[in-house]
Inverse folding.
């Protein structure tokens, strides 16, 4: 069978653009199926290990910085890149002090070339936006604090 690599690449790009997990095309006797695996949970990376300084006494351990408590913050449902506005020239969806209702778009998380609007799950006032525009975010990372 002669494989059309351009077609396979085009189908793979289409998977990424649409968020589909598999696509299959048939042309006469030729049949091509392209699929990608979906992880059930994101992979967490371990902190990098650094070598001890050469010679001398070991360095004192650096103080551990604890993350601030953001109980009740709206958290990221996925790994991706956060955008605070619909496009670079548009104003941010929300800022501290804004009133929000259930369903209001707070920001967008781009994952695999798909723009996912993140909406408020409750009414309240935005206390703080905890991320910067175009910042990578992890699954379950606090994004917006609403009181």
């Amino acid at each position: 069978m002669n494989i059309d690599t351009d077609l396979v690449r085009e189908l793979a790009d289409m998977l990424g653009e649409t968020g589909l997990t598999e696509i299959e095309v048939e042309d006469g006797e030729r049949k091509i199926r392209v699929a990608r695996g979906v992880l059930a949970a994101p992979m967490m990376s371990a902190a990098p290990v650094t070598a001890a300084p050469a010679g001398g006494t070991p360095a004192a351990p650096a103080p551990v910085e604890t993350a601030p408590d953001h109980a009740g913050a709206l958290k990221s449902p996925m790994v991706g890149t956060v955008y605070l506005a619909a496009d670079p020239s548009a104003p941010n969806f929300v800022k501290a002090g804004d009133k929000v209702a259930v369903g209001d778009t707070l920001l967008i998380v781009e994952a695999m070339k798909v723009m996912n609007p993140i909406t408020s799950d409750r009414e309240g006032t935005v206390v703080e936006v905890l991320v910067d525009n175009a910042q990578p975010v992890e699954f379950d990372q606090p994004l917006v604090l609403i009181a």
Observations:
- Strands lie at 22-27, 30-35, 74-75, 80-83, 99-100, 105-111, 114-119, 124-129, 136-137, 142-146.
- The chain is about 10% helix and 30% strand.
